Automatic annotation (TrEMBL):
Name of a matching Pfam family: MFS_1
GO molecular function: glucose 6-phosphate:phosphate antiporter activity
Lineage: superkingdom: Bacteria
Recorded topology in the membrane: Multi-pass membrane protein
Membrane-spanning parts: 42-65, 72-90, 96-119, 131-155, 161-181, 215-236, 248-269, 281-300, 306-327, 348-365, 377-396
Matches recorded under InterPro entries: MFS, MFS_dom, MFS_trans_sf, OPA_Antiporter
Lineage: Bacteria, Bacillati, Actinomycetota, Actinomycetes, Mycobacteriales
Domain Major facilitator superfamily (MFS) profile stretches: 7-402
Name of the protein: MFS transporter
Gene Ontology biological-process annotations: phosphate ion transmembrane transport
An example Gene Ontology CC term for this record: plasma membrane
Length: 425
């Protein structure tokens, strides 16, 4: 059991640094606009391309994960992200900088689902929901690294030192992962046999047409995008330029987001493990509460008080650990051999929504004259379309899952137990 925690901790540390790489551009957005002399729409294209690459890589990453295992993909992801950050540290060329963020997106895509894959291999089934939540919420410490020490380096020694330091930390992670992480305990095979391209395509199709996978996809889509959009791109500009906070106060709210995710993630992990037949209601509650909280803030005709912005950050941050319920659906309704592919499909949901919202907000901010209170007030309203899609998707796919698999609230725990026995057998 001690070794399991050691292996998992190394994987989580890799994910922490991956989240830091992912969010560094969000906290440096205004500096990037000055460095590369670009408008909001062009600036958003940095993160948009990064998220496009991340989302597009999820299914290939899942297939590779099923084939090669977690150790290879986590180490590769860390090396690729370090290369992207180093390029960004050294260049003043706009096309090269955009390409560097795309490279970061590739490495990022390999990391999270690979760390998640370690959990059911190293831990007993009863621990998996809670450890899965811990994986997601501890990874968000990377936001603190980007909001505090990285931001201090950016405002102190400058751009090149900040991004160069991030790259160096990534190299250390590669060494740690290769030294510590193993795919599974000795004697337990977790990678698939070599298959043909046709077999791979058939497997991808089969995974998507399992309604439980789609339930996970829409759960992830509707819960994760708001806080991810906030952390990746528009949160810091909104708080500083739109709401008039200092960079220190804005960084403090981003750190509050991480603390909120940690606390709520533990609660969600316990609830999903104890009441698996009520997971969809938890997901729906998170979507509705996010929408209501944003409504309160956006209805104000002037800047919100700090306490209300703090409450907004706390509420939307629950969406991060809430999205992990989608991965629990992937695990519940897919065999172990397809788990990486299923998790990749689920992970597309939230990041696809994030991509669309970031891009739409960039266009709206441009049209409304930049980073003003009123421009942000209009731009954030694009979120309501995604919440509507997410809620409808969860309701329809939940109904389909129960009708196709025969799963009702009373039989779901029996299905989970059968899948567990199949994996162990």
């Amino acid at each position: 059991m001690v070794r399991a925690w050691v292996v998992w901790s190394a994987g989580v540390l890799a994910y922490v640094v991956g989240v830091m790489h992912r969010t560094t551009f969000g906290v440096s957005g205004i500096d990037a606009a000055a460095r590369f002399d670009v408008a909001p729409t062009v600036l958003s294209s940095f993160v948009v391309l990064q998220v496009v690459v991340y989302a597009a890589m999820q299914i290939p990453a899942g297939v590779m994960l099923d084939r090669f295992g977690s150790r290879v993909l986590i180490a590769s992801g860390a090396a690729i992200m370090a290369a992207g950050q180093l390029t960004l540290a050294m260049t003043e060329s706009l096309p090269l900088a955009i390409g560097a963020r795309a490279v970061v997106g590739v490495g990022d895509a390999l990391t999270f689902i690979s760390v998640l894959r370690l959990v059911p291999q190293w831990f007993a089934p009863r621990r998996v929901p809670l450890v899965t939540q811990l994986t997601g919420i501890l990874g968000q410490i990377g936001q603190i690294l980007s909001a505090v020490p990285f931001l201090a380096l950016l405002y102190g020694p400058g751009w090149s030192v900040a991004f160069g330091s991030a790259a160096a930390l990534g190299v250390l992670i590669v060494v740690l992962v290769l030294a510590v992480v193993r795919n599974a305990p000795p004697g337990l095979a977790v990678v698939a046999e070599k298959v043909t391209l046709r077999d791979t395509a058939r497997s991808i199709r089969d995974v998507w047409f399992r309604p439980g996978t789609r339930l996970g996809f829409f759960s992830h889509l509707g819960t994760q995008f708001s806080i991810t959009t906030f952390a990746l791109m528009w949160g810091l500009p909104y708080l500083t330029s739109g709401q008039g906070l200092s960079s220190g106060a804005a960084g403090g709210l981003l750190s509050l987001s991480v603390l909120s995710a940690i606390v709520s993630g533990i609660v969600i992990g316990v609830l999903t493990g104890r009441y698996p037949n009520r997971r969809s209601w938890l997901v729906l509650f998170i979507m509705v509460s996010n929408a209501l909280m944003w409504t309160v803030v956006l209805m104000l005709p002037e800047r919100a008080p700090v306490w209300l912005l703090a409450l907004l950050v706390v509420v939307i941050s629950v969406g991060g650990p809430g999205s992990a319920v989608g991965f629990d659906y992937a695990r519940t309704f897919n065999p172990s051999a397809n788990l990486g592919t299923a998790q990749g499909m689920v992970n597309i949901g939230g990041f696809l929504a994030t991509l669309l919202v970031i891009l739409a907000m960039g266009f709206i901010l441009d049209a409304k004259g930049g980073y003003t209170f009123e421009a942000f007030r209009v731009a954030w309203t694009v979120q309501y379309v995604v919440w509507a899609v997410g809620i409808i998707g969860v309701l329809l796919s939940r109904k389909r899952t129960r009708s196709v698999t025969g799963v009702t609230p009373r039989t779901l725990s029996e299905v989970r137990e059968r899948i567990r026995r199949d994996r162990e057998g």
